[in-house]
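Deliverable D5.2: sample structural annotation.
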Amino acid sequence: MQIYLPIAEVSVNAFLLLGLGGLVGVLSGMFGVGGGFLMTPLLFFIGIPPAVAVATEANQIVASSFSGVLAHFKRRTVDLRMGTVLLIGGLTGAALGVVIFNYLKSLGQVDLLVKLCYVIFLGIIGSLMFVESLNAIRKSRKNTGPIKRKKHNWVHGLPFKMRFRVSGLYISVIPPLIVGVFVGILSAIMGVGGGFIMVPAMIYLLGMPTKVVVGTSLFQIIFVTAFTTLLHATTNYTVDMALAVLLLVGGVIGAQFGAVIGAKLKAEQLRILLALMVIAVCLKLALDLLIMPSELYSIGAAGGH
């Protein structure tokens, strides 16, 4: 069933979009990532222009994250205080990111920038998570007892400390604020919730327990991506509602399944699965950038007749 997308100006199979939305929803519920880092490249692959994919995907992430958060609220695995600190940073970063995005759009460089950002970030994060997860699995196989989390690193020496009861932490608000700003900028430029950066940062930098990280990450993602969508819709007019609705329906249903699956897997297994997916998408995008398109002169030829 083909459907025409007015803003993207392409026809796409409606069931394909529902399926993609569902797949990303499952990931959202399992890993605490908005799933945009996978969905936005997938939209590129089916022919959606990058500027439209970025703005519309931010919209879809809001719904799948909201659906995922509800499941985590029931289990009381959301640290609202930490989520709020991350959110303040995130909103600031998102506003900054949209300004950068609009400037690059005026230069005509936005498509290339978005794809390059994906290749770089996905490559780095996927590799780091993969190596770390392998080490964690190896340690758990050796049965050396529980893996000791380093309680003190440079983060604990910073001022403006605050107690985060759900996470069992007493740390400075500066690192979560910086993580939030960084993720907000990425959210605006790449159309992602930023969970693929947020989740590792919360686990390794802030020392939060994995079970609390997923719900807290999703809580923050909802508001940052909603804000990003609003900014893109009012400044760029690149939000395609027909595309967003189809992705939304799939995403909301998928997120509920994802939360159930995620609860059954070990933290190390979850992280290694996520790392493998990140690396796979990164490789596909890198190949697309490096390989010359087969119909290089098709536009010129069509214009000549």
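Annotation notes: The two ends are 31 Å apart (CA to CA). The chain has one domain: 2-143+158-289.
The annotation will be released with the project's public dataset once the embargo ends.
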